[in-house]
Amino acid sequence: MGENPASRPHRHGSESTELDGWAATRRLKNQPETKHIPIIVLTADSKQKSRAVHAADCDELKPIDFPGLVGKIRSLLSASTKP
Fold it and tell me: Is the whole model's pTM more than 0.90, yes or no?
């Protein structure tokens, strides 16, 4: 209760026709009220990985190393709570 909806995980596909994941990422990172929200890109396309490096806080190429991903998530969450 009282949780900020922007702090919940969201999924955006890079192939979406409404607002693709890259456009959503740019919008989030360009808004003062949302730029602190960590963004993790999961992709199976190695070409997209290079794009993810510039757009997101973290990226993972599929198949996902889940223990490694959890470690990255923990690190991003701990860094995002520091002033």
Answer: no
How many separate domains does the chain show? 1
Is residue 26 assigned to a domain? yes
Question: In angstroms, rounded to a whole number, what is the distance separating the alpha carbons of residues 82 and 20?
Answer: 30
Q: By CB neighbour count within 10 A (0-12 exposed, 13-18 middle, 19+ buried), where does 52 fall?
A: buried
- Structural domain of residue 57, as residue ranges? 15-80
Rounded alpha-carbon distances, angstroms, from residue 60 to 2, 5, 67, 82: 31, 24, 12, 24
67 or 51: which leads in pLDDT: 67
pLDDT of 66 over the 90 cut: yes
